[in-house]
């Protein structure tokens, strides 16, 4: 059945579309070709413009003073948007870096920036490599067959980021469950419940946990990122409880869920493209390029929203003041005008101008860490991998925000 342009636009507001690569990319290709700036009216959602071309996503990202993150940084139902608005008025809403604009964004981002600079990443790299070996060894212990997404990919980045924060290992499983409930709020299997109140309760559980952590780190500072956040000062004053907890939430969740999606999706790509796996194994110097290709291929962050502060013309279409735009990163990363053969997985793709980390002032704070983790894992795995094949169907998370594979059953032989 051939999609209409309106049907293609509505796919962007359908969490199940993101669990079906063929359906999603058919819709996105149609929008890029016929309606790259398209007004979407989807049931239960406040209408928005869908932006699907790489150049246009870049243009809006560059114009961050015209297109603001607030008040609608992510795609949610109209009911959920209203509930968030009410909670913001009460001062109890999540307010992470992705919810902020300058000057707040610039000041708050600086609190954790030093922890993700190249020098800090070099210091962390031995720990990342140690954890990568632990999880490849874990594959050996699992006896040649496992659900790679559930048993390996989801845990390795979790250990890295929570170690950086300084959380005890006894709390890691709790953080994993909360993160999966947060990003899997539209997935029947992962969600805590279907009501907006139940989804918001996940955030409140995060806040309660991190409020306790903040109190502890303020009484007893330590040499970790959690302490840096807890004891940060803005104009001489500590962050309020919700801004502090929000900072923890974005580090603890975005810092591992996106990377685990890339590692699982990257392995699936190597299974589906054995010629590229052979090429990469025989040419390990290609690994930095292969890592970026995995990130482009998976694009774990599906969208961010922006709101226009004034009328703005894009491709002959006027976006009115107050209109929301959805930046589609999976679409930008398959744009035929930017990428040669965009639907081919190319372990040596160069250049690779993907936008999976965003662009400009909102460029992902943890991009360097994500690259180090993915590289460390595959540098450990590939030299030891003798064979690998699917052991059942892969399944993806239903989401409109962050996601990737939730199941990847594999059968393998490892040295």
Automatic annotation (TrEMBL):
Signal peptide range in chain numbering: none
PANTHER family: BIOTIN BIOSYNTHESIS CYTOCHROME P450 (PTHR46696:SF4), P450, PUTATIVE (EUROFUNG)-RELATED (PTHR46696)
Cross-referenced Gene3D superfamilies: Cytochrome P450 (1.10.630.10)
Family: Belongs to the cytochrome P450 family.
A Gene Ontology BP annotation from the UniProt entry: cholesterol catabolic process
Keyword annotations: Heme, Iron, Metal-binding, Monooxygenase, Oxidoreductase
Protein name: Cytochrome P450
GO molecular function: cholest-4-en-3-one 26-monooxygenase activity; heme binding; iron ion binding; steroid hydroxylase activity
